[in-house]
Each structure stands twice: as C-alpha cells, then as structure tokens.
Amino acid sequence: MSQLTTPAAATPAAAVAAAPAKAAKRPGRSRRSPAKSLLLHGTLIVASLIALGPIVWVLLSSFKPGYAVQSSDLTLVKDPTLANYSYVLFDTNFPKWLLNSVIVAAFTMLIGIFFSATTGYAVSRFNFPGRRPLMMTFLITQMFPAAILIVPIYTIMARFGLINTLPALIIAYLTIAVPFCAWMLKGYFDSIPTSLDEAAALDGCGPFAIFWRVVLPLARPAIAVTAFYTFLTAWGEVMYASAFIQTDNKFTLAYGLQQFVPQFNPQWEYLTAAAVLVTVPAGVVFMIAQRHLVSGLTAGGTKG
Amino acid sequence: MTTVTADPAPPSPPSGRSARPSRLRRSWEKHWYAWAMVLPVVIVLAVLIFYPLFRGIWLSLTNLTEANQAAEICTRSITGGEVCAENPNRWEFVGLDNYLNVLSGNVGDFWQWTGITLIWTLGCVVFHYGLGLGLAVMLNRPMWGRGLYRVLLVLPWAVPAFVSAFAWKFIFNERFGLANSLLSSLGIDPVDWFANQWTSLFTAIITNIWLGVPFMMVALLGGMQTIPGELYEAAEIDGASAWQRFRNITLPGLRPVSMTVILLGTIWTFNMFPIIFLVTEGQPAGGTEILVTGAFRAAFEGIRNYSLASTYGVLILSILLVFSMFYRRALRKQGEVW
C-alpha cells in the first residue's frame, strides 16, 4: 500500500507546485515597468487595507472604554482597557456559549467532511443510477430559503425531541453545508486520475479501502476547504439557532452575541470585544486552511 | 468485484431505472457501495429538506398560524415532548388565498421587496465577480508579497457573517461610526445612513461585497491556475496584447468556474438573510427589506404565520428555479453544459 501512496502523494504536491510555476512562466515580471509595478502593488495594498480595515477597527475599538467607543472623535487608541473583554468573558455566559459553538462547529465539521467526502467520491467515481438527479438536487437545495424550511424542520426536530439541544443545530447546519461541499469535493476527486484507483483495485483494495487510503489522502487541499467551509457555516449561523435554541445555557456564540444588541441601546463596547473573541477561532481555522484554499477550490470550481 | 470498483464514471446518461427484478438485482450488486456512500446524505436531505419542502408547499395552501395550529407545533414547553392535544379543526385548506394576498399586496410588499432584492442581488454579484476577477488577475502574477496579499484579501471570508454585519453597522453608525468620522474629517457632512432607503441599502451592499469577494477571488484564482501556460506563451509569440490575452485566453478558460460561481453567488445573495436583517434591519420603514427578510418579518413578527412564511418560501424558490433554468438554457445555447 505504501508503494502506492508514495507516488500518489507526489501528485497533489506537483499540482500545487505546478500552478505557481505555470504562472511564473507567464510574461510579466521581466517586462513590467516600475509604473505598472507601482500600480499593481498600490491597488493590492488598498484592497488589502479595505479587507482588513473593518476587522482592525473593531479590534481597536474593543480596547476602548465605552465613552470612547461612542464618541465621534476619530482616534485609533484611547485609554486602552481590557474592561470590555473582562465583562464579556466573566459577566456573561460567554464561556458556555463558546463551548457550545465549539461543540456544534466541530461536529458539523467532522460529520460534514465525512458525508461530503463519501458522497462526492461516489458521485465522482461510480456511474450509478440516480447520480445525475443527486447532483441536481444538491444545486436545488442551495435555493431553499430558510424561511420555508424553518417551521417544518422545527416540527421534525420537536418530534425527535431535539428542540433546545445542540444536535438539532448540528443536523440543520449539515443540511446547509454538505450539498455544496459534496459538489466541490466531487470536482476535486474528478481531477485525481482514476488510474490510481485501478492500480489499488488490482492490489486487491475494495471500493471503501480505495476511497480511504488512496483518494482521500490525495484530496487533502479540498478536504481543508471543506473543513473551513463547514466550520464557518456552523460558527456564524444565527437563524436556526434563534429558532431551535431557547435557554441561555444552550446558546451558540452567534446567537448569544445578540444579547448585546437590544433594540434601543446597543452596548457597542461589549459587542466589539465579543466580535473579536468570536472571530479569533474562525481566524485560527482559516490560518490552518488558507494554504489550501486556492488549490482546493480549483477543481471544485471547474468541474461543477 | 474489483474490476467494477475502478469504474471511472465518465459523464454518461444514467441508465433508466428498470422494473425488471433481475436488472434491479444486477444494478444493486454493481452499485450497492455507491449507494451506501450516498445514502446518509440522501436520507438527511430527504428528511430535512424535501419533507419540509413538500410540507411547506402544502402549508402555503392553508391558513395555519401560531394561533390556530393546536395539534401542529405544540412544544414551546421545556420538556420538548409531545404535549399536543388533538385539536386539528382550527386551521383549514384555503387554496390559493395566500398567494393572492401576497401577490396583490394585501399582505406585505411583495413587489417592492422583489425590486429591492433584484437591485441587491445584481449589485452584489456584479461587484463580487468584477472585483474578484480583478484581484484574481492581479494575484495570478508572480510578484513580491503575493502570498501575503492573498491571505489578507481572503481574510474577510473567515469572519462570520454576523460579525461582519455588526462591524459594518458599527462603522456606519450615524453618531460615532468610522464612515462619518472619515467624512467629516474630509469636511463632508455626516450622513444618517439608515434614514434613507438608498444609503441604507448601500451600506448593506457594501457589507456583502466585502464579505463575498474573497470566495469569488479564490475560486477564480483557482480556475486561472488550471489554464495551461502554453496558451499565454503562444499568444505572446503571436503578438497578443495583455488585454487580448485576457479576453481570449483568461476569460474563456474561466468559463466553467465563472458559470458555477455566478449561479451559486446569485442564489446565495438572493437568499442572504443575516446582512440585511442585522445591518439595515429593513430601515427606513421596511425600505430595504429583501424578500427573505421581508417574508421573515411578515410571517414571524407578532403571531407567527406559518402558512404565510411557506407561501413566501415557495415564491422565492420558484423565482430561483426559473432563473437557474433560463441561466442554464442561455449557457447551453453557447455550447457549454455542465
């Protein structure tokens, strides 16, 4: 088996490495004039600033005391304090919400990866009856507005006794994330040569072993994207959480955060601190996955 | 068995489901593991998407609300069990009344919301794609700091939608928001963003553009890296300008990716709930409601009107289905099918 995976493992690495190499062959660097270079970097720097701006602004504001947050004077740092953080962390149920969110997101991620990978693999490799309709179904599920689904799903959850439990959320988030991820993974699996499967089959691997030992390790970039996507879906969702969760100790962060936004007097300073605390875990997952984002989405996007 | 396993499944039409038992059995023997792999997803989708869908269609033909439901949804209690008393005679089948009410404007502002939704969707998707493509083209060149730019530009994707909604709402706050501070430091009068329909919609669109560009950029960047570099070399030898190379190599090479991401982007934006709901909250006076948020408010504020929610849901789904049908047909005419 190891002989099989070694040359195989080289393939995605080659694919990843080939991409920049290909780009490098393109005309550009040698002929780019200083003015063009300046324009290019200038545009990208501005774009990066816009991308970062809101995040940084919220981060800076989270260290300001309440009166400075709600002041119209433009200051970057003013009387820096950790009071907002200590309030959010210690005077609310924040730790509990964080834990709930971690549980929900982690399970959504793990189960989501597993289901999308098996489904994507089956759709990519086997020409079974029902394959086409399944692919179309995945697309159609993306069109369902939550407004139409939320009440019947609520009924079903109630029937299974899942209201106000975390599994209800995990299941609901899986229905959002899995169709897209399966679609994306199918595209990536398509780009892995079937000759590898055939070789493994000659070595006596069954279909499940081929999937597990040959194809899955090769699809690591796409799996990383799937992990990122499923995690984020579960981490940031508000609507289902507000429908299915009723007691404070079961809130996810996304929903619990809304407590800081009462209708008339939003507590902006706490909100900023909470926003930072919510974003940090998502950012960590992003940093782990980001190396793979481009190559992982590549084939997924192309093959649809 | 093993010879079958590596069946590569090129795109060939699915063999029609035959009624013959022997065929069925052979089909089962050949495909059972494929079905086994797909089964969990199919079950979950069937239970949680398709059952609710058909139920939703049925509900849209009734007048079910929270007040007259009785036997339907009875578990607001903590036990979560079935505390339902058998009392089903309250709500009834009303035919197309809901649709007539919604479409004639008796309930809610369907046409206004649809108009806003179209502006919102078009505005967002055009900028998502345009900016995403532009940035992807720039990032696809060899240059100093490319990896860093890429990480920074993709970062908004990692921010959960509701956090970005809060962040931008904070920035556009009329009293102490960054946007107004910057404007007044430039000597421009501060704007009360959420008091006017168009500035309010503008803030929401800006938020969503900020949030959605990274996905487009990454997908298109991925697509560009699958375009063979030889094409560019050949074009250059033939003396093609940068613009010509972009028009005649990059864009056609990106077509498959573009088709998919534009379709998905349109669907996602059309149904994008949290941004409008949290950033503009429909202000001023419902002037920036899109269909999903408008439907949500119409159906769920006050007494929850389940049949009305379902009606809107069916209408939204129909619009998107029709759109994607035309979209696919238009693409097929140009010779490309996916």
TrEMBL record, chain A:
Coiled coil: none annotated. The keyword Magnesium does not apply. Residues 98-289 form the ABC transmembrane type-1 domain. The chain crosses the membrane at residues 39-60, 97-122, 134-154, 166-185, 270-289. It is found in: Cell membrane. Keywords: Cell membrane, Membrane, Sugar transport, Transmembrane, Transmembrane helix, Transport. It is a multi-pass membrane protein. SUPFAM superfamilies: MetI-like (SSF161098). PROSITE patterns: ABC_TM1 (PS50928). It comes from the Bacteria. CDD domains: TM_PBP2 (cd06261). InterPro entries: BP-dep_ABC_trans_perm, MetI-like, MetI-like_sf. Belongs to the binding-protein-dependent transport system permease family. MalFG subfamily. This is ABC transporter permease.
TrEMBL record, chain B:
The keyword Mitochondrion does not apply. Residues 1-22 are annotated as: Disordered. InterPro entries: ABC_transporter_permease, MetI-like, MetI-like_sf. Gene3D superfamilies: MetI-like (1.10.3720.10). It is a multi-pass membrane protein. SUPFAM superfamilies: MetI-like. It comes from the Bacteria. Its main location: membrane. Keywords: Cell membrane, Membrane, Transmembrane, Transmembrane helix, Transport. It holds the Pfam family BPD_transp_1. Residues 114-327 form the ABC transmembrane type-1 domain. The chain crosses the membrane at residues 32-54, 110-139, 151-171, 201-221, 257-279, 306-327. It is found in: Cell membrane. PANTHER family: ABC TRANSPORTER PERMEASE PROTEIN, DIACETYLCHITOBIOSE UPTAKE SYSTEM PERMEASE PROTEIN NGCF. Belongs to the binding-protein-dependent transport system permease family. This is ABC transporter permease. It comes from Micromonospora andamanensis.
